[in-house]
Amino acid sequence: MKFLQKLGKALMLPVACLPICGILMGIGYALCPATMQGGDITGIGNQIGFFLVKAGGALIDNMALLFVIGVGVGMADKHDGTGGLAALASWLMITNLLSTAVVTTIMPSIAKNADATLAFDKISNPFIGILAGVIGSMCYNKFKDTKLPDWLSFFSGKRCVAIIAGVVSIIVSVVLLFVWPVVFTALITVGQSIAKMGAVGAGIYAFLNRLLIPTGLHHALNNVFWFDTIGLGDLTHFWAGETSKNVSWSLGMYMSGFFPCMMFGIPGAALAMIQCAKPAKKKIAIGLVASAAVCSFVCGVTEPFEFGFMFLAPGLYVIYALLYGIFTIITVALGFRAGFSFSAGATDLLFSSTLPAAQKTVLIIPLGIAAFVVFYLVFYFAITKFNLKTPGREDEEADFAEVDKNAKLANNDFTAIAAAVLEGLGGKENVESLDNCITRLRLEVKDGTLVNEKKIKAAGVAGVMRPSQTAVQVIIGTKVQFVADEMAKMLK
Questions:
Q1: Which residues are catalytic?
Q2: Cys-Cys with 72: which of 79, 84, 247, 465 at CB 3.0–4.6 Å?
């Protein structure tokens, strides 16, 4: 669990890049529907809309790459950029080795299997991005101080990290070469079974769709229900202007349930998260979660919200996926039908409501209100009842004393303060690692007996805490970053 929470924290930086992109895409689609539906891009309004869509898509479409760098740097000791470089090397290695062109050359039999080929077509996904980030950061943490023989000394230390990450990635690629298509094909088989279960099947699909988002394997199910993998093609038939009379199922049933959840459920859950955030980080939570909610409502881009908590509180994410399943069953049963060509946001609802297959779209109002209330109540109860680590409630906040909020340095000579604290820690030779949170220096020392708390306090800091024999936390206040930067220079 500690590993998952560390991973979740590392994802916060790349996730923070996504909401504005989703909003730009939503505005762009509103100005230029032809971008979504096809057709000519004419007139200044359409051109601006097209430009905004492409601007937002630049990051949304490359979200996996953002995760590579974010996890690689965020989980590396001292957040060293070398971890990000190693992660990038891992990503390039895995995605190239497992690209369809390479795989079908090595194993020609795969080219004859449409499901297996599709699996490798979707290999550049957030899961592989996160995996590459973990490989890069772990290789950095393990091998950053590696000393090689004199004839290889150029590659000693940090210079060998990316090389080792590449070797590890080759091994991982070999494993995925056999595992990935098996899992992908199995999910397609599951999808074929679900398709025979009507509204309940649609609910199960929606549940699994959300549940599989972190792995990228949701593409397997999407291809079963949205496209013509087994003769369904809910999305393609809907936008082709057909109706349920033209197909063997209720057209739109595998898309409709996402609308109340994405447009209203996520804002409700976001409000619960904001209200449950620690006072000291409520503004940070608002900035991250509220913008993600707007992004979801406007154009149905949910990843900024989902990746913001799925690793911090995996149990809550399962509940979140379950709510999708429940609301999809209700939505399908009530006869609401809408479709999307991008995602289930207000933009797609507006465009799809004029198509022949659209039915009872006015029901989005009561369904949306219900989704907002239910998501809010469930999230609020779960977060408070089980003390879940959603944005603004991470573990590091739990041990913040009241003094942290108002902590102030005796002066602003950050260099002198850093030097005095370092001396109190037993000198730079005794410091194993340095990090900081919002108000504290967080250090690991080699020998805890060398730490002199009186000397550290004499530097003008607000306090000192000793969570363990080798762990030291120095309470600085909101200017902690400046002291940390000066100390980092001294530790080199």
A1: 437
A2: 84
